[in-house]
# Entry
Amino acid sequence: MNRKKPEAWTKLARERMQILLALAEVEAGAHPKRSKRYIELAKKIGMRYNVRLKATKRFCRKCSSPLVPGVTCRIRSRKDRQAMVTTCLKCGAISRHPYIREKKIIKQRRTA
Ligand SMILES: [Zn+2]
# Structure
């Protein structure tokens, strides 16, 4: 059996997931439960149509609430770890995003 879904379906799924993510970010402050549900729905759609949720920086991996700086998460840059540390204010989960690559690019530009 062909497991791959038609291109149009995955395109539609991607669109729907983006809409849900945007909605979740809008509702993050006023309706945290609702926004969490939006993320969960987006995840479910992604699972069904084999579409990965690329925006990993936009929601918490642990409790799947949207990460809006100043509202639902705290972002700090850690010099010793060379990373951007995002803390979810709902469950306390931490995610790190290294910025070594960006630093390298800046360095190259300076020397060039
Ligand atoms: Zn969380």
User: Anything to note?
Assistant: The CA atoms of residues 61 and 93 lie 8 Å apart.
